[in-house]
Amino acid sequence: MLELTSATIRLHATAASSEDAIRQVGQLLADAGFIEPAYIESMLGREQQANTYLGNGIAIPHGLNEHRDLIRRTGIAVLQVPGGVAWKNGEQVRLLVGIAARSDEHLGLLANLVDVIADADVAALLASTDDPAVVIQHLGRRRAGAASPASAGAGDATAQVRMGSAHGLHARPAALFVQLASGFAADIQLAYGAHTANGKSLASLLRLGIPYDALFTISATGPDAHDAVAALQAAVESGLGEAPGSAAPAPDAAEQFRWQPASALRPLQGVAASPGLAVGPLYHYRAQRVVVRDAPAAPEQEHDALRQALAAAHAQLGQLHQDVRARAGDGDAAIFLAHQALLADPELAGQVGSLIDDGHSAAWSWQRAIEERVAAMQQLADERLAARAADLSDVGQRVLRLLVPAAQAGPQLPESPVILVAEDLLPSDTARLDPRLILGLCTALGGPTAHTAIIARSLGIPAVVGAGKALLDLPADAQAILDGGQGAIYLDPTPADVESARQAQAELSRLRDAEHATRYQPALTLDGERVEVAANIQRPSDAEVAVQAGAEGIGLMRTEFLFLERAAPPSEDEQYQAYAAMVAALNGLPLIIRTLDIGGDKAVAYFDLPAEQNPFLGVRGLRLCLQRPDIFRTQLRAIYRAALEGPVKIMFPMVATLDELRAAKAIAEQVRLDVGAPPVEIGIMVEVPSVVMMAEEFAREADFFSVGTNDLTQYAMAMDRLHPTLAKQVDALHPAVLRMIAQVVRAASAAGRPVGVCGGIAGEPRGAVILAGLGVAELSMSIPSIPTVKARLRGISMAQAQAVAQRALACATAEQVRQIPLAV
Ligand code: PEP
Ligand code: MG
Hints:
eight-stranded mixed β-sheet; binds phosphoenolpyruvate; 30 helices; binds magnesium ion; globular; alpha/beta
């Protein structure tokens, strides 16, 4: 990390304007020999493009990326303007931290700044202090880095301590720590990873999020410092009033809070479908089935009505698929594609068509054909096939509601937060539930693999299924506690039970808050190895959201979403605007733009692509781009134009052969020369087993690899990732896939190429630990996973992650990989 010395700190400055202030802090950098004076203009240029105001009166002016060559060596400088200077957003800035960074050495400093920003008192102190040492202490001092915990803490007494409490420093043990610490006169500080906390402040301690077995430092300054450190060390090591931990796995947050009612309440027992606790009133949700009478018009009109209803239902399902996919990923959204397929069933169409020709209405004919099929499926012995009857019934009702406009409304949804109770829920019912109003849900029928359960999990709604018909007789509005992790629902809980359930909920949410509060800290493992954590996004506006969530860049921009749901492809300018907007929002953080990945599950009508027997094995991704150079060139032009404005890398999807990569790179190079853009790194997605086997050859020609485990798993296992019954087995933690990733990492590191993973598994804490242990340098994931994954990686050493990864490679099944304790 950077050292800050008094030579680059100027206190008590005045500034006429933000420009004047930036020039002064820039001059400090120049005088110290960190930059060429011309870099100051670049700092002003950056400020015009983007605002470097951070909060609490602090701004961090720095130059544009393309002027990094004006930086002689990485350094920082601090200008204090106690009287304040107006910033362009109208805020008063009283502390400027000028940054000249050749790489990312300033991240540790930023982590310190995040603490300062969160603490108005410290920010005010830094803006008014007369003592440069105070500034150095808060901004420049090397904190208790994970790499060198022994260096942490500068007090009269210091000790390195291992957290003995089984669930880490959560609320109860932290409260005990504060109580003990407050009995001493000395000031007490804890240092963990890149952060420090006041040992007498509960809020401050909780923000550290110290897990079981982690090494951290206690230091004390004052008359009884030695006694304080000795007493606190003993208390921490003996578990702080909690059962001391064993070498058992550090459970993931949701597993930590197993709730038990204190009273003798007997639950209605169902099947655990989605973990979490819900406390609230019951609400009976009764699907209103549309039943139609036969009132036919002329057959032509009825055929027409059916065609329109089918087209509208197809469009609704497409929208639902997009929505659920964006929220929950491919696997969970797949059911709506299966529904679309049911709509297109030729036998069904044939039967309905003949009934209409026989003089029946479209609605009646459709209802009759669906009911016959549903009844036949319900008779099937195979449980999973019988469950598909619910899907067919769902599709049937959707079309009937379109054919009979009076029935459009569908079932009533609650207007205030409730535990929703239903006989069964159709997948589309579940998808339209608003998680803010549905505290939990419980169904009489259904099993844990039903799509309802899967969607509830992905929406984070606690759920119990298969609770039996008795559920439907429970009084509406009765108070209940639903425990999704245990599959139980308790009626009329005592106030003490409600209280303890709420406490358990609060603890979990505190843990999530602690993860959120530390989201800007880099994912440094306990032994000081850094794993980059980036975001997968699909809309330009996501870039800013990703940074706010702690992303250190964009590891995958799925550009195909710019092409979907429109009548014509986006123009070069339109694409350029989108890419340039992301570059600006990222403010120097890296952006990997993946070229178009159309085909497979993502179809675009205006490309006029022939229907394919096996779309996932057909003209998809880079193959399509090579067949349609017009589309490819336009996109590459837009990307290279955006590359003139900030760091951009290009990534090709669905590469299978070296020839494809060579052809694509040749086109890219021509486009680059046309545009007059600088060279950018060109990498590939590793999604096809042929690339794994040829990784050594690919590593000579691609600048980086990003493993798309969603596709790599489907192609390795020969299981369609969207298949209604197979999709759940397409588990990227299967040892077959992990061994492939290990092979790719070996080949890439021999050639000095970095490997990232941007498939869904990178965003699962378990997956992240294993991938890090396999040597994956960058994990890119959906935005909500970022704070949790970063916290998880900060709580484990790389040596532990490697041991877990080695065990995973030796497993025979994905289930075994999912059982490995994460702290071995
Ligand atoms: C993947 O295949 O893992 C991937 C990240 O790409 P997509 O999900 O967009 O196919
Ligand atoms: Mg893919």
